[in-house]
Amino acid sequence: MVPRPAPSSGRAGSPVRRGRRGLLRLAARLVPACALCVLCLLGAACSSGDEPPKAERSDLSPTDIFSRRAPKPTQPAEPAEPAQTARTRRFLVVGDSLSISLGEQLERALVGAPGLDFARDGTKSTGLTRPELLDWPARLRERVAREAPDIVVVMLGANDVMPVEGPDGTRIYFNNPAWAEAYAAKAREIVAICRAANPKAHVYWMGVPSMGEASLAAGIRQVNDALSGMCAATDGCRFVDAQAPFSDPEGRFSRHARDRATGETVLLRTPDGVHLTDAGAKLLAGVALAVVAEAEKLPPSAGVDELRAYARDVRPVAEAAPEPAREPAAAKARPSGKIYAVKKGDTILSIARKLGVPAVDLAAVNPGADSTRLSLGQELRIPQKRKR
């Protein structure tokens, strides 16, 4: 029987223990190395500059590769922001029937113009002296409260050759020297309403064109003088003369004009000598834009350029001398036996239009009536209507 060796209890240790120590030392070296490899694979600790760049994945499309390489923009819409947030200017045209013709032409010229919001508000037979037909201060105050305009073109005055209400409520007749200041105060209120809604608003007041009827033409000159003086003394207002562009070289009313670009003669006025044909409306719009487009730096527009060129080329010509009438107009007028009672705001011209008779006939059968001093309730004879 072979005797078993006694178990060793010395410091040298057994082979098993020495093997375990070797494994522990090996593990101590391998764990950091493995951790480093893991970090390298994750892209956080592999910084060797000697290694060649890794090839791109073959399954990526060119768009995918570019999107990975190209820097991502912070906000794609940011560069276009200034153009999108640029404030749109509001352009408003207000006034009587002449403003309607003017507004239609301006709207065609400015439609689609960048940075402009165009609107118009015209009412026939209205003015500053006829609040019973339309209270323009109240109407405008309501409108600008909704959307304050930056540019306002006003055309009122053609219906204002009549008494105006003074500050104390009394009627100031047209031939009274105080009329001009009382009327200018009414116009100044319109400008103040626009600039109260927008202190930077610019108001362009269009003068009234020359008129065919002699007494009305003289009255319109007084209206234009009052409006011109008001604008000259009022901040934010500019008067645009329309008398000269519709008068012949001698300063007289003319229905016709010559287009220097085409050599053609064009008709500017309708038979009543007050309103405008399409050619007349284009001329008026061109006169307005010659001032407004320059002062407001309006965006380039073919329509604007066309109207400005039209106003430059079209010049009224002297009317041919009329043939002598075989019978004076007054001799044709006969009273009809009917009476008309004057109402507030009435003039000989407005009454004649209302009754459908020529103003000259109405004046002829009422020789003592002063068209500038009609009184409420005053009785006027109505003439017979002419036979056609």
Describe the protein in words:
The longest helix has 27 residues, at 15-41. With 388 residues, this protein is α/β, with parallel strands linked by helices. Mean pLDDT is 82; it is low at 1-13, 44-51, 53-74, 79-84 and 325-330. It has helices spanning 15-41, 62-69, 81-85, 97-110, 136-146, 179-197, 214-232, 278-296, 302-313, 329-332, 348-355, 359-364; strands at residues 89-95, 116-122, 151-155, 164-165, 171-172, 202-206, 237-240, 256-259, 265-267, 314-316, 335-341, 379-383. Helix 4 crosses helix 8 and helix 6 (179-197) crosses helix 7. A hairpin with a 5-residue loop joins strand 8 (256-259) and strand 9. Helix content is 39%, strand content 14%. A five-stranded parallel sheet has the order 2-1-3-6-7, sandwiched between helices. A three-stranded antiparallel sheet has the order 9-8-10. It has two domains: 87-316, Rossmann fold (3-Layer(aba) Sandwich), CATH 3.40.50.1110; 329-383, Roll (Membrane-bound Lytic Murein Transglycosylase D, Chain A).
Oligomer: single chain
Radius of gyration: 43 Å
Mean pLDDT: 82
Assign the CATH superfamily of the largest domain. SGNH hydrolase
**Helix fraction bin:** 25-40%
The sequence of SSEs as H and E is HHHEHEHEEEHEHEEEHHEHEHHE
The structure class reads: alpha/beta
